[in-house]
Amino acid sequence: MTAVDTRPRTEASTPGGRARALHRGLFGNGRRPGFLTYGLLFAFFLASAYPLWWSVIIGSRSNEALGQTWPPLFPGGNFWTNVGEVFDTIPFWLALGNSVLISGIITVSVVGFSTLAGYSFAKLRFRGRNGLMVAVVATMAIPTQLGIIPLFMLMRTLGWTGEIGAVVIPTLVTAFGVFFMRQYLVDVIPDELIESARMDGASMISTFWHVALPAARPAMAILGLFTFMTAWTDFLWPLLVLDAGNPTLQTALSQLQSARYVDYSIVLAGAVIATLPLLVLFVVAGRQLISGIMQGAVKG
Amino acid sequence: MESGTLMTTTLNRPAASSPAPAKPTLTFRQRLNVLDMKGSPYLYIAPFFILFALVGLFPLGYTFFVSLFDWHLLKGQGEFVGLRNFQEVLQDRFFWNSLFNTMSIFLLSTIPQLIVATAIAAVLDQNLRGKTFWRMSILLPYIVTPVAVALIFANMFGEQYGLINNILASFGIERILWTNETLPSHIAIATMVNWRWTGYNALILLAAMQAVPRDIYESAAIDGAGAFRRFFSITLPSIRPTMIFVVITATIGGLQIFTEPRLFDPRTAGGTGRQFQTTVLYLWDMAFQRSNFGKAATIAWLLFLIIILFGIVNYLISRRIATTGDGRGPGSGARRRRRGESAAPAVVLPAVGPQPPAPAADPAPESAGSAGTPARTNPRRAR
Question: In CATH, what is the architecture of B93-367?
């Protein structure tokens, strides 16, 4: 297996890729892309960005802006008033803090346990390794989210409903994470490196710490990014176990829409400010997100 | 226990420090070392298996147990009813309605998404200026959470003052009842899903397109194949395994869709006439609005079986396609023209993990054929 280069073949990672890319056009016809291409790209850009921009426009005006046939092109001056209304309606900062805490705990746990188990599966020899790895792969196919009823009963029995712990517990580990780390580590750490560390008298855990962990870092970052995103966007489970007084950002946001009289400019102002944290993450880590998605498609 | 036989070679060394060893025994340090070597691998995988069993498998199994009882949200476990819940749910037209809605929304969100994502990927697969900018621009919707997406689009699709009806009206087209009619409501919900995921999938397909060796295009061009011919006879077949993979991950999320229909009209659980009540929404309604845990568990269990069934079908189809697809698979590869070693990787996986980063996996490490097939994984897809 090691003889085959399974590294992602995106043009960014292969040295020859850039040179090759110079001779490509649409459908590989060798020309530099023209006006049509950029027109299409701009259309995609508009389709991606317009719903958000529209939310900014309506969220910074009042409900009346919704009634206009053609919406205004630019934001109005009501944004902070509307945001103030959002803060009065939902415990925004508490919700934001909860979301950060919950997603953070889940990310640390998933990445930590996945790296540990993935390393063990990739590089250590033990009886039953293959069988257990098959079990991991098989469990990825199981929709564990459908176990919400017993989980809910369990949390209620333990008296944890309403607490952050109840949200965190069901997703502390994922089979996907283990599989992902195993696939990465199996190629990236040479067996000789582990053996020589062992020869030097390093214990198993210090071999893991000093050899595996540094090598695993890029994959840990990608897994962490996506685990964080997934935990951050989760809605159903926090909706069940948390109450309106101690929500996550998602469940708090949904309350804006559930009010008896819905002021859409406030709802959309809420949607906009709730999107800001991930927008910041996107600006900071957007490239990693993209390469994570693209590498995941070719190799995990 | 086994350590004695294992360590004999090292043990025969005269142990200078230990006073008169009657038989070759291990020093404390050595014992510790053996224990470390033998035990650590299990210790490292144990947290995963223990936690997964507790919070993943056990609740699923217990769901089946609950489904065999009359079970009330507050009153708790009631009388044992055997399979009566299953009988009732299978005869419940609202259950079938929810399955129909789920499938309908799933198809409306998967097929157009795949087509558009392929088109975007083809446009992106060129020597562009500002490549990162364009890639980021199509990924932008992915960072908007499903709740925010649902709030935004529920307003856009508003029947009275929604943006879309306003624009339609300005062209003299009659307002569409986006929430009150079945098909329009499905289209609206599918649009939320499509908006969030199309760019993401386009990037996956783009990666697959870039893995197609360029010389194939060049020789096809020399042979006189035009751009569209090249796209349909080279690009599309090469990325087919990836497209299957995209469909698989879409299936997992799509069959459990909840957030979008829940928030499309928050006053109802899937519309006044349940016209967009999906199965998970019905499950939620049954459990937490009507307090019938027994039946809700039954719905969960049935949906579980359906998803597993989809997973198996997906696995069989994708394995067939993967092995006929790129000439690497055992046997059947010869039937198709060999597309070159680095054509889009072969294996599309059985996997159908619904839970957060839902993946698709290489069937198993040991089945990876002679060539060491790159596995495909994808951190994705919970809604």
Answer: Orthogonal Bundle (1.10)
